[in-house]
Every structure is written in structure tokens, then in C-alpha cells.
Amino acid sequence: MVAGGPVSRSTEHLKRVLDRHGIGTVLDVGANAGQYARRLRRAGYIGRIVSFEPLTAVHASLTTAAVDDPMWEVAPRMALGDGDGSVTLNVSAESDMSSTLDFTDEMRTLLDDSGYVGTEQATLSRLETVFDRFVRPGARVLLKVDTQGTERQVVEGAGAALDRISLLQLEMSIVPVYQGEPSYLDTIAWLASLGFQPVLFIPGYFNRRTARLIAMDGIFARSPVHG
To answer: pLDDT per residue over 12-27, tens digit each?
Structure first.
């Protein structure tokens, strides 16, 4: 299991949301090296975590991070999206900034240490295709998606399995980071049309140069949400 350490107020709030909704399985899509799962463990979450990561080297680090945790499963190396097949990933010098999308011109300037250094191929699957491999019948599920601009495609790829998901956690850009990604306002409106409403926002990357919040995570619960 993950050793203890400081727990942020935001993670404490997230853990409370998971408890409130009885979440027994977390699908961690875009897991990178397992930072999100380790934060949940430090906050006291003891349910199942299934992590998905497409980059070869990072997937190896993720597997190592989870090896001593019997409730933390690492899926075979794959990307999730709105189709089944293969995908080309742009690999960033900062692995958690890797994406199938290109940076916007503004972000290419601001994130000069995160430029792309190569590409890598990965299997692409729809969540609906693999859902029953990783989620037990009757489990209450949080789907967390941090896929650098393609979060909507992952949710769309859930198909009929979306009906079995109680909570969604999506990274949303306030300032566009990747070309073609939807705005955070469009994402909130789209999720409302799917029957999800926000219950928590967690600040993400803050750019010191511009003194501006660039991204945040939104946690959305299936309506109706009662107080």
C-alpha cells in the first residue's frame, strides 16, 4: 500500500464525494505514473482502482507503483477514446502532457519545457468495449479522465456503460491548451445534457507567468443530486 503523507484539502473533499456516492471502483483513465491513485490511497480510499495508461515507459512505472496494492489493477497498455483501433500519441518531455492533439500556439510558448519529443503508437479502445473486463456487476463507479484534451472522446466511448457510472471527473481547460479541445463551459453544458451536474471543482495548473489558472478538474454526479 501507499505510504502515508500529506493530503490536500481538495483530495479530502474528493474522498468525501466518493464516500457520499458509495464509490467502490475508480477507473483512472490517463493514469500517468499513478499520482492520482496514490493521492486517493493517502486520503483513505480503500476501494478498487483500475488505471489506464498508453505510454510504454510510463505504463511500466505505473505497474511498479501498483504492485503491492491488491486493490489497484493496471490495465494492459492502451488509450481509451471513441473508437477501437490504434492511435498516435505525441510524447511530451513532461509525460503527463502527452496527447494525440497539438498544443495551441499560446500554450506552446508558455509550456516551453513540455514540448513534444517524439511519437508512439498505442492500442485504442472504447471504454464500452472493455468495461466488463474491469468492473464487477453492481459496482458504483467513478470514471476519472485526464487525457490531455480528449476527455470528451473517452466519455463518448463509454456508450451504454455510461449508465453504470455514478460520478465523472474530467480535466477541463480554462485557457485552451490543445487544439480542438472543447471549452470548460461547453463541457459543463454537454455533461448536463447527459444528466450529470457538478459537485466539486479542483484547481489544476496555475501559470505563474500569466498569473492565471489554466485548468481544473470537475467532478460531476448523475442527477438528481440531493443536498
So the answer is: 999 999 999 999 999 9
